[in-house]
Amino acid sequence: MSGTGSSIVDEDTARTVNSGRETVGAMLSTAQDHLQKVFIVFLVGFVASFYALRSVGWPFLKSVTKAQMPPSLAESVTIIAVTPFDVILLQAKIGAVAGIIIALPVLLYYSRDSLRKQSWYPGAPIARWKIALLVLLALGLFLGGMLYGYGVFFPLMFKFLANNAITAGFETRYSIVKWTEFIAFLSLSFGLAAELPLAMSGLGYTGIVPYETFRDKWRYAIMGIFVFGAVASPPDPFTQIMWATPLILLYGFSLYLTKIVVTLKRGSERLSFVGVVRDNWIRILGVPALAFLLVRMFFTRAGVETVNAELPAKYALPTVGEALGLPRTEAVLVVSGAVALVAFVVAFLYYLTQALDEAASAAQAAAGVGAPAAGAPSNIDLENLDAGAVRAAPPEVFADMSEEEAVGYARQAMDADDTEKAQAILDRYDELHPEDDEEGEADAAAGAAGAEAAADAGEDGETTEATFPREESESSGNVLESTAAGMADAFTEDETTEDDIGGWFYDLRFIFESLTSKMMYLVAVFMIVLAAVFMFLYRGGIGVIREDFLSRIPAEVRPETGSGEEILNIVTLHPVEALVFEVKISTLLAAVAVLPLLLYWAWPAMKERGLASGSRSVFGLWTGVIAVGLVAGSALGYTVVAPTIISWLVADAVRAEMIISYRVNNFFWLVFFTTAGIGLLADIPLTMWLFERGGIVSFDAMRDRWREVTIAIFAVAGLVTPDSLYTMFLIAIPISVAYLIGLGGLWVVTVGGRR
To answer: What's the rounded Cα separation, in Å, for the pair 729 and 168?
Structure first.
């Protein structure tokens, strides 16, 4: 089938894809005469990075990792290669990435003519000093973020993680691949996060994101910073605070910088950087000079010794030379210069703020507003302002303005042949009323749909409001839209039944809404259990469990032989492996603890939807059954099953005189599933029989929904187990078998469901 109507890609998308393909082809065609030079640059970057890692890179990363560790802890941290090709392949990968990054600017330079023809290159010439300043600023911010990571964050984080693993009795043998990828990812995230001032000011200056949006949505920004930190950094409060605190301060600075940039753009006729420096150059230069002298006097006149005399010995400050690793004279100059630079920036921003306030006052004066009382934003008359004054006017002038008023002022400016002022008025109004644009687009779409519906209905005009959306979807929707609409119909209340996925979605939403008033208690119980278990494991509990468990293994396969050599070791190949395992175990036990309470409060809604019946007093008995089954099964697994299985697994390796090293994840998941897992498996048929006897869930419901239960079991197993299909099946299949055993027992008790 051919024709434009049958394609799911519209003409604009196809044109964009073709344009991009042509641009890439033309760029390579133009640069083909210089590809040899580009390849040479790539090769130089690749080789230089490859050998730099060998001679400088690995020693530097090791020194950063162990910078804050005491000698005993540093000796226990080793970097290992798991396979023979780990090191050379890793160096090749990093070298290739470095070579591409270095060669890319050269390729773009030689293909600039093709980019200019495709309108991908600025047509108007841009001053080279502006480009150089922008590039230097971006590089400086990126390097500043990485400097914080390597100078502050990484040493403290690795000390914390290594100490946590050693306390638990693990061996910290970091895989060179996982260790390097972990550092590289965090380094990149710090460098990109440091670009926040440049990104925010650029977005605000171009008007893509108004300054008022950054100002009003600061709560969401802080929440996003913490969420991003939880993903990018290890899952413990200490490192997340170290991650989030500088970013929050950076966001505040970026917000202030964006305000300055936007204000300068709006009132550039009345203010300039050069003018601010010219009018206040003595004070702007005097403040950093004074700061430099004061800091230098503090370090050269025994300031550190005086402060340490008033502090306890364990909180004593190091000397500036020890802190920076430089000779004392050079270290004092570096610190004094850094403080002076910060003082210069603060002084400049202070006087720039004063100049901005004066520019705003001048704009009000130009509008005929003199007295402070009369200078309220509501009293500013836009008719007497020029375009520059409109851009410099306070945002409150336009925040309180209606759309009709803004259009009226713009029309007056057009009548006066001042198109620049008219555009400035509309731009300022749109910045503070983005919702009007969305409503206008929605109204236009609704109007177009209504016109089509009216035309299709005929001349009698007998159409209703409900006809318009349907006509719009039928006439203007493409394949993707109609498919998405059909999928969404399954979740609408009018189009669903109790047997399809929409009905299940409605049931879940109904149950969730019934739990809204109890959500605070559920979250509180979950967090209390999670925190208690995590603190127990984190403060050495996991080490106590390890020692006691290994003591139950037969003597021939215990960790230490008569010579003291360890046969069975538990290692961490990733810096955060032990910590992540503690979080997973804590989360799993917290979920088990909160489940009876959740079902107890959800029971009325489940009963109303026909998913449960009987008395919810059964949940109290069920809680006791779960506790007894879990404790009894765990005790049996801990004392008999788990030691027997592990002894059988390592017997051949011990006879062959091999040293066994288990990853902490694999070893402890094995221990957990052969101890607490047995108790949880025993709880499944007990729960099913109890729910059926108590009238909570019938045997017919359990039998008819076995497919949904099986899918849910495999889905949860895939999320909570290590990243392996083998472990997912190893957990999901026994649970599914336990569910089938429960169904079999109920089938016998209920005589096939007839009783």
So the answer is: 29
How far, in Å, CA of 70 to CA of 74, rounded? 6
- Interval 248-296: pLDDT, tens: 888 888 888 887 777 766 655 555 667 777 778 888 888 889 989 988 8
Supply 521's token pair: 């208690």
Return d(Cα 69, Cα 74) in angstroms, integer. 6
- Return the structure tokens found at 298: 């503090």
DSSP H or E segment with residue 46: helix 35-52
Look at residue 528 in the predicted model and tell me its pLDDT. 92
Helix (H) / strand (E) element for 571: namely strand 568-572
The strand pairing partners of 566, in sequence order, are 560
How far, in Å, CA of 663 to CA of 572, rounded? 6
Determine the Cα–Cα distance for residues 7 and 5; give it in Å rounded to an integer: 6
Give the SS3 label for residue 662.
strand
Give first-to-last CA distance, the chain, whole Å: 60
Instruction: Give the residues of the chain that fall short of pLDDT 50.
Output: 1-9, 368-375, 448, 451-502, 561-564
- The conformation of residue 478, written as its DSSP 8-state character, comes to -
pLDDT value of position 479: 42
User: What's the one-letter identity of residue 124?
Assistant: A
CA nearest neighbour of 352 among 456, 439, 271: 271
Buried b (16+ CB within 10 A) or exposed e, 715-731: eebbeebeeeeebbebb
CA 751/CA 713 separation, integer angstroms: 27
CB-CB contact of 522 with 597 (8 Å):
yes
Residue 214 contacts residue 200 (beta carbons within 8 Å) = yes
Q: Where are the domains of the chain?
A: 367-432, 515-697
Q: Give the distance between the most distant pair of CA atoms in the chain.
A: 100
Distance of CA 175 to the CA centre of its chain: 25
The per-residue pLDDT for range 520-533, each reduced to its tens digit, is 888 899 999 988 98
Residue 378: which of 387, 367, 388, 386 has the closest Cα?
367
Sheet of 568-572: strand order equals 78-80, 171-175, 568-572, 660-663
CA–CA dist 408, 415 (Å, integer): 11
Residue 36, token pair as written in the block: 């040899």
Which segments of 4-105 are extended strands (E)? 78-80
Cα–Cα distance, 166 to 174 (Å, whole number): 13
Residue 442 burial class via C-beta count within 10 angstroms: exposed 0-12, middle 13-18, buried 19 and up: exposed
Residue 194 DSSP symbol: T
Tokens matching residue 248: 């929050």
Element (H, E) at 254: helix 237-266
Q: SS3 string of 363-394?
A: HHHHCCCCCCHHHCHHHCCHHHCCHHHHHHCC
- This prediction has a pTM of 0.60
Q: How many CA atoms lie within 13 A of 294 on its CB side?
A: 9
The CA distance from 407 to 399, in Å, is: 14
Which residues, in sequence order, are CB contacts of 664 under 8 Å at separation 6+? 165, 170, 570, 571, 572, 577, 578, 581
Ramachandran region, residue 319 (left: φ > 0; alpha: ψ -120 to 50; beta: rest): beta
Q: 187 with 149: CB under 8 angstroms?
A: yes
Three-state DSSP state, 436 = helix
Of all helices (H) and strands (E), which one includes residue 569? strand 568-572
